[in-house]
Amino acid sequence: MKSYFYFLLPLLLLIVSCEDDDDPVSTEAELSIAFRGEFGEDDLAIQSATYDYPTGEQLKVLLFQYYLSDLELLPADGGDAVRLSDIELIRWMSATEGPVATKTYTVPTGDYQGIRFGLGVKPELNAQDPNNSPADGTLNENEFWNASARYVFAKIEANADMEGDGVFDTPLTYHMGSDALYTTITFTQDFSLDGSNDPQLTIISDVLAALSDGNNTFDISDADQQRVHGGNQAIASDIWNRLANQFELEVR
Protein backbone atom coordinates (compact mmCIF):
# COMPACT_ATOMS: atom_id res chain seq x y z
CA MET A 1 0.00 0.00 0.00
CA LYS A 2 2.85 2.38 0.87
CA SER A 3 4.61 1.81 -2.45
CA TYR A 4 1.33 2.44 -4.29
CA PHE A 5 0.98 5.79 -2.46
CA TYR A 6 4.50 6.84 -3.42
CA PHE A 7 3.69 5.98 -7.02
CA LEU A 8 0.59 8.21 -7.04
CA LEU A 9 2.12 11.17 -5.21
CA PRO A 10 4.20 12.55 -8.14
CA LEU A 11 1.18 12.19 -10.42
CA LEU A 12 -1.00 14.18 -7.99
CA LEU A 13 1.63 16.89 -7.66
CA LEU A 14 1.87 17.13 -11.45
CA ILE A 15 -1.89 17.57 -11.78
CA VAL A 16 -1.97 20.27 -9.09
CA SER A 17 1.00 22.01 -10.69
CA CYS A 18 -0.71 22.06 -14.08
CA GLU A 19 -3.87 23.48 -12.57
CA ASP A 20 -1.88 26.22 -10.84
CA ASP A 21 -0.14 27.15 -14.09
CA ASP A 22 -3.40 27.74 -15.93
CA ASP A 23 -4.36 31.41 -15.96
CA PRO A 24 -7.96 32.01 -14.89
CA VAL A 25 -10.24 33.02 -17.72
CA SER A 26 -11.01 36.74 -17.48
CA THR A 27 -14.69 37.65 -17.47
CA GLU A 28 -14.11 41.41 -17.47
CA ALA A 29 -12.36 43.86 -19.75
CA GLU A 30 -11.27 47.48 -19.40
CA LEU A 31 -12.96 49.28 -22.28
CA SER A 32 -11.64 52.71 -23.24
CA ILE A 33 -13.92 54.98 -25.24
CA ALA A 34 -12.31 57.99 -26.87
CA PHE A 35 -14.47 61.05 -27.49
CA ARG A 36 -13.02 63.02 -30.37
CA GLY A 37 -13.90 66.61 -31.24
CA GLU A 38 -13.56 67.91 -34.79
CA PHE A 39 -14.41 70.93 -36.91
CA GLY A 40 -14.93 69.63 -40.41
CA GLU A 41 -11.73 67.91 -41.52
CA ASP A 42 -9.69 69.39 -38.66
CA ASP A 43 -9.14 68.51 -35.03
CA LEU A 44 -11.08 70.68 -32.61
CA ALA A 45 -8.68 73.21 -31.07
CA ILE A 46 -10.33 75.43 -28.50
CA GLN A 47 -9.53 79.18 -28.59
CA SER A 48 -6.53 78.74 -30.89
CA ALA A 49 -7.46 77.45 -34.36
CA THR A 50 -9.27 79.59 -36.94
CA TYR A 51 -11.93 77.77 -38.95
CA ASP A 52 -13.60 78.75 -42.22
CA TYR A 53 -17.40 78.81 -42.14
CA PRO A 54 -19.31 77.84 -45.33
CA THR A 55 -20.84 81.32 -45.75
CA GLY A 56 -17.46 83.08 -45.72
CA GLU A 57 -16.97 84.01 -42.08
CA GLN A 58 -14.25 82.66 -39.80
CA LEU A 59 -14.72 81.19 -36.33
CA LYS A 60 -12.75 80.47 -33.20
CA VAL A 61 -14.49 77.87 -31.05
CA LEU A 62 -14.44 78.71 -27.33
CA LEU A 63 -16.51 75.85 -25.90
CA PHE A 64 -18.15 72.64 -27.05
CA GLN A 65 -19.87 70.27 -24.68
CA TYR A 66 -22.74 67.82 -24.46
CA TYR A 67 -24.33 65.45 -21.97
CA LEU A 68 -24.71 61.71 -22.59
CA SER A 69 -27.24 59.64 -20.64
CA ASP A 70 -27.45 55.84 -20.31
CA LEU A 71 -24.25 55.02 -22.20
CA GLU A 72 -24.64 51.29 -22.97
CA LEU A 73 -23.14 48.40 -24.91
CA LEU A 74 -25.53 46.14 -26.83
CA PRO A 75 -24.76 42.39 -26.52
CA ALA A 76 -24.68 40.39 -29.75
CA ASP A 77 -27.12 37.82 -28.33
CA GLY A 78 -29.79 40.45 -27.88
CA GLY A 79 -29.58 40.30 -24.08
CA ASP A 80 -29.87 43.18 -21.65
CA ALA A 81 -27.75 46.21 -22.47
CA VAL A 82 -24.59 46.69 -20.40
CA ARG A 83 -24.75 50.07 -18.68
CA LEU A 84 -21.46 51.95 -18.69
CA SER A 85 -22.66 55.21 -17.19
CA ASP A 86 -25.90 56.95 -16.20
CA ILE A 87 -24.61 60.40 -17.15
CA GLU A 88 -21.44 61.86 -18.70
CA LEU A 89 -20.45 65.40 -19.59
CA ILE A 90 -18.12 65.54 -22.58
CA ARG A 91 -16.44 68.92 -22.81
CA TRP A 92 -13.77 70.89 -24.68
CA MET A 93 -13.18 74.26 -23.03
CA SER A 94 -9.45 74.97 -22.79
CA ALA A 95 -6.67 75.80 -25.23
CA THR A 96 -4.49 73.28 -23.35
CA GLU A 97 -6.82 70.36 -24.15
CA GLY A 98 -6.32 68.05 -27.09
CA PRO A 99 -9.14 66.94 -29.38
CA VAL A 100 -9.60 63.56 -27.62
CA ALA A 101 -11.03 62.85 -24.16
CA THR A 102 -10.93 59.21 -23.00
CA LYS A 103 -13.06 57.44 -20.42
CA THR A 104 -12.56 53.84 -19.24
CA TYR A 105 -15.20 51.38 -18.08
CA THR A 106 -15.10 47.83 -16.68
CA VAL A 107 -17.39 45.62 -18.76
CA PRO A 108 -18.09 41.90 -19.24
CA THR A 109 -16.10 40.17 -21.96
CA GLY A 110 -18.07 38.87 -24.92
CA ASP A 111 -19.49 39.77 -28.29
CA TYR A 112 -21.33 43.03 -28.87
CA GLN A 113 -23.33 44.47 -31.71
CA GLY A 114 -23.25 48.16 -30.95
CA ILE A 115 -23.41 51.06 -28.53
CA ARG A 116 -26.26 53.34 -27.49
CA PHE A 117 -26.66 56.58 -25.58
CA GLY A 118 -29.09 59.40 -25.03
CA LEU A 119 -27.94 62.82 -26.16
CA GLY A 120 -28.82 65.20 -23.35
CA VAL A 121 -29.99 64.64 -19.78
CA LYS A 122 -32.67 61.97 -19.56
CA PRO A 123 -35.98 63.22 -18.12
CA GLU A 124 -35.68 61.59 -14.69
CA LEU A 125 -32.26 63.17 -14.16
CA ASN A 126 -33.31 66.44 -15.78
CA ALA A 127 -36.03 66.71 -13.12
CA GLN A 128 -33.53 66.51 -10.26
CA ASP A 129 -32.59 69.51 -8.13
CA PRO A 130 -28.89 70.35 -8.67
CA ASN A 131 -28.63 71.20 -4.97
CA ASN A 132 -28.90 67.47 -4.33
CA SER A 133 -25.78 66.79 -6.40
CA PRO A 134 -22.19 67.48 -5.32
CA ALA A 135 -20.75 70.78 -6.54
CA ASP A 136 -18.15 68.92 -8.60
CA GLY A 137 -20.59 66.27 -9.83
CA THR A 138 -21.57 65.68 -13.44
CA LEU A 139 -24.93 67.34 -12.84
CA ASN A 140 -24.38 70.61 -11.00
CA GLU A 141 -25.75 74.13 -10.82
CA ASN A 142 -23.23 75.44 -13.37
CA GLU A 143 -25.13 73.58 -16.11
CA PHE A 144 -28.58 74.35 -14.71
CA TRP A 145 -30.86 77.08 -16.06
CA ASN A 146 -33.81 77.14 -13.68
CA ALA A 147 -36.63 74.96 -12.39
CA SER A 148 -38.56 75.47 -15.63
CA ALA A 149 -35.86 75.06 -18.26
CA ARG A 150 -33.73 72.58 -16.26
CA TYR A 151 -30.27 71.52 -17.50
CA VAL A 152 -28.34 72.73 -20.53
CA PHE A 153 -27.91 69.60 -22.67
CA ALA A 154 -25.27 70.98 -25.04
CA LYS A 155 -23.29 74.17 -25.64
CA ILE A 156 -21.51 75.60 -28.65
CA GLU A 157 -19.75 78.93 -28.12
CA ALA A 158 -17.53 80.75 -30.60
CA ASN A 159 -16.30 84.16 -31.68
CA ALA A 160 -16.76 85.09 -35.33
CA ASP A 161 -14.96 87.41 -37.70
CA MET A 162 -17.85 88.72 -39.80
CA GLU A 163 -16.04 91.46 -41.71
CA GLY A 164 -12.93 89.55 -42.70
CA ASP A 165 -10.71 92.02 -40.85
CA GLY A 166 -9.10 89.46 -38.56
CA VAL A 167 -11.06 90.64 -35.54
CA PHE A 168 -13.22 87.99 -33.88
CA ASP A 169 -15.65 90.32 -32.19
CA THR A 170 -19.05 88.69 -32.78
CA PRO A 171 -19.96 86.19 -30.03
CA LEU A 172 -22.03 83.15 -30.95
CA THR A 173 -23.70 81.35 -28.06
CA TYR A 174 -25.87 78.28 -28.56
CA HIS A 175 -27.12 76.63 -25.37
CA MET A 176 -29.71 73.92 -25.90
CA GLY A 177 -31.79 71.76 -23.60
CA SER A 178 -35.30 70.48 -22.90
CA ASP A 179 -36.97 67.12 -22.48
CA ALA A 180 -38.38 67.52 -25.98
CA LEU A 181 -34.86 67.63 -27.45
CA TYR A 182 -33.60 64.48 -25.72
CA THR A 183 -32.51 62.03 -28.44
CA THR A 184 -31.47 58.36 -28.32
CA ILE A 185 -28.59 57.50 -30.64
CA THR A 186 -27.73 53.90 -31.56
CA PHE A 187 -24.71 52.65 -33.50
CA THR A 188 -24.74 49.12 -34.94
CA GLN A 189 -21.21 47.77 -35.10
CA ASP A 190 -19.94 44.28 -34.23
CA PHE A 191 -16.96 43.94 -31.89
CA SER A 192 -15.66 41.54 -29.26
CA LEU A 193 -14.00 42.13 -25.89
CA ASP A 194 -11.72 39.50 -24.36
CA GLY A 195 -9.61 41.61 -22.00
CA SER A 196 -6.45 41.44 -24.10
CA ASN A 197 -6.86 42.40 -27.77
CA ASP A 198 -9.79 44.73 -27.36
CA PRO A 199 -10.70 47.30 -30.03
CA GLN A 200 -10.57 51.06 -29.53
CA LEU A 201 -13.99 52.69 -29.68
CA THR A 202 -14.07 56.35 -30.72
CA ILE A 203 -17.18 58.53 -30.70
CA ILE A 204 -16.63 61.48 -33.04
CA SER A 205 -18.51 64.78 -32.83
CA ASP A 206 -18.12 67.59 -35.36
CA VAL A 207 -18.98 71.17 -34.41
CA LEU A 208 -19.18 72.28 -38.04
CA ALA A 209 -21.62 69.48 -38.89
CA ALA A 210 -23.87 70.66 -36.07
CA LEU A 211 -24.09 74.06 -37.78
CA SER A 212 -23.80 73.06 -41.44
CA ASP A 213 -24.49 69.52 -42.66
CA GLY A 214 -23.92 70.08 -46.37
CA ASN A 215 -27.61 70.63 -47.06
CA ASN A 216 -28.52 73.29 -44.51
CA THR A 217 -26.17 75.91 -43.12
CA PHE A 218 -27.08 77.88 -40.02
CA ASP A 219 -27.07 81.64 -40.66
CA ILE A 220 -24.63 83.06 -38.12
CA SER A 221 -24.83 86.53 -39.74
CA ASP A 222 -28.41 87.04 -38.50
CA ALA A 223 -28.13 88.94 -35.22
CA ASP A 224 -31.36 87.32 -34.02
CA GLN A 225 -29.72 83.90 -34.40
CA GLN A 226 -26.43 84.56 -32.68
CA ARG A 227 -27.61 83.69 -29.19
CA VAL A 228 -29.74 80.81 -27.92
CA HIS A 229 -30.03 80.58 -24.15
CA GLY A 230 -33.21 78.90 -22.99
CA GLY A 231 -35.48 80.75 -25.42
CA ASN A 232 -35.47 80.64 -29.22
CA GLN A 233 -36.46 76.97 -29.18
CA ALA A 234 -37.02 76.87 -32.95
CA ILE A 235 -33.38 77.87 -33.43
CA ALA A 236 -32.27 75.44 -30.73
CA SER A 237 -34.13 72.59 -32.44
CA ASP A 238 -32.55 73.44 -35.79
CA ILE A 239 -29.04 73.16 -34.39
CA TRP A 240 -29.91 70.21 -32.14
CA ASN A 241 -31.20 68.07 -35.00
CA ARG A 242 -27.93 68.45 -36.86
CA LEU A 243 -25.95 67.88 -33.68
CA ALA A 244 -27.78 64.62 -32.98
CA ASN A 245 -27.29 63.38 -36.54
CA GLN A 246 -23.59 64.10 -36.91
CA PHE A 247 -22.12 61.61 -34.39
CA GLU A 248 -19.96 58.80 -35.74
CA LEU A 249 -18.54 55.63 -34.19
CA GLU A 250 -15.16 54.16 -35.11
CA VAL A 251 -14.14 50.67 -33.98
CA ARG A 252 -10.50 49.78 -34.59
Structure description:
The chain is α+β, with helices and mostly antiparallel strands. 17% of the residues lie in helices and 41% in strands. The strands form two sheets. Strands 3, 4, 5, 7, 8, 9, 10 and 12 form an eight-stranded mixed sheet that branches. InterPro entries: MbnP-like_dom. This is Copper-binding protein MbnP-like domain-containing protein. It comes from Neolewinella agarilytica.
List keywords for this structure.
252 residues, 4 helices, disordered N terminus, Copper-binding protein MbnP-like domain-containing protein, MbnP-like_dom
Gist?
The protein is built from 4 helices and 13 strands. It has 252 residues and is α+β, with helices and mostly antiparallel strands. Residues 1-9 and 11-21 have low confidence and may be disordered.
Strand fraction: 35-45%
What is the makeup of the main sheet? 8 strands, mixed
- Let me know the average pLDDT: 90
Question: What is the rounded distance between the termini?
Answer: 62 Å
Count of helical stretches: 4
Helix content: 10-25%
Total number of strands: 13
Shape: globular
Oligomer: single chain
- Rg over C-alpha atoms, rounded to the nearest angstrom: 25 Å
Low-confidence stretches: 1-9, 11-21
Q: How many structural units, i.e. domains?
A: 1
| Secondary structure category | alpha+beta
Q: What sequence of helices (H) and strands (E) makes up the elements?
A: HEEEEEEEHEEEEHEHE
Pfam families: MbnP (PF20243)
Protein name: Copper-binding protein MbnP-like domain-containing protein
Domain Copper-binding protein MbnP-like: 29-221
